[in-house]
Amino acid sequence: MARVRFGGIVRQACLEYVPDAAPGDYVLVHVGFAISRVDAEEAARTYAVLEELDQLTELNAPEITP
Amino acid sequence: MKYVDEYRNKHLAESIVREIRRIQTRPWVIMEVCGGQTHSIVKYGIDQLLPEGIELVHGPGCPVCVTSLEMIDKAHAIARRPDVIFCSFGDMLRVPGSEGDLFAVKSQGGDVRIVYSPLDCLTIARQNPKKRVVFFAIGFETTAPANAMLVWRAKKQGLGNVSVLVSHVLVPPAIASILQSPQNRVQAFLGPGHVCAVMGYREYEPIAERFRVPIVITGFEPIDLLQGVLMTVRQLEEGRAVVENEYARVLAREGNRAAQKLIFNVFEIADRKWRGVGSIPKSGYRLRYEFREHDAERLFEVASIDTQEPSICISGQILKGIRKPHHCPAFGTECTPQHPLGATMVSAEGACAAYYAYGRHLVNAEAV
Description:
The complex is a heterodimer. Chain A is α+β, with helices and mostly antiparallel strands. Chain A is 32% helix and 29% strand. Chain A has a two-stranded antiparallel sheet. Chain B contains 17 helices and 11 strands. Chain B has helices at 10-23, 35-44, 46-49, 63-66, 69-79, 102-107, 120-127, 144-156, 171-180, 193-199, 205-211, 222-238, 257-266, 296-299, 315-319, 351-357, 360-367, and strands at residues 28-34, 54-61, 84-88, 111-114, 132-139, 162-169, 188-192, 215-218, 243-245, 267-274, 278-287. In chain B, α1 packs parallel to α12. The two termini of chain B are 40 Å apart.
């Protein structure tokens, strides 16, 4: 069992299904069980791709002529 | 909070919507399968942000909503017994059975308790050795690892006074059943992120191929949902139909092997009846024979039950994505979260309850 902080609340969670989890990791908890460890690199990569999309769309926006 | 705030970025949301608008050439109907996604979509108004012609319909992914009336009535019959402590997740307590709900059973003297985790039942059983502790093991694949662990540990620890009333349901057979219906309008799916965190998404690949539907496994934050819609629309516009993973920070194709192993040690696949939908072959779990001593359905003789649904409730059609909550004459009038007629109005994951919580009944009343 481990202590997991959900925003402000701390509750116990069973880590038996995420044996690699270490203190400080982010885990997905459902009914008292961690079912997945959030992949920090993947989260950063996805977000970077999304932000890129943001910029590309800006570039695609029609030019507004005064 | 990390991994939450950045997935609620308004500026990014707007640019994803612009990208959807840019690539979309015709109307599309997309179903989000999971009740958690339905709640998020209605809460953040994701469906209203989308360009006209992209319609989101809400699927059968609310575990509380699809638990069959027979099973609810069985739960009530067991919970009424004086020798039983009946444990459940909180949102099952207000689900209407043929006669009242679990709160009514509790007020009539039944020992009904809400637990945070199924494992709490082990402690309760140890503290009450003369009582029979029964857990209402409902849910989709997401909840199965927790419920399986309860049964596994109860057997291992020799806690003979712990049993479970199993009513587990599975997502892939439900998707296949929706696609086989002659009334089906759904052209693509946002797949259930948390279910796939456990099971992975290999079993969705033959469905995408057989029915030619894109399935994008999607998370629950606004940016996840919009990105899921964008990936789905892109496939639809390009004429592709494969499984893609929007929620890669949480899950991979194989899912959680350790959880799957315990699930299949404890459960086996069985036919299951879904409330409002009917029986779907091989769409649920039941306990394996080795765990029969912890099977509440075997332990408690529950006489054949005569179930009764309110005739006005259209939750069955809502769960199949055929109609929406505001199409129901009782929605927001006779039927409210305080006095639900059907299960879709009970759970926060139910489409009716979500529409009601975020004031959709007011908007739609004006629009009618």
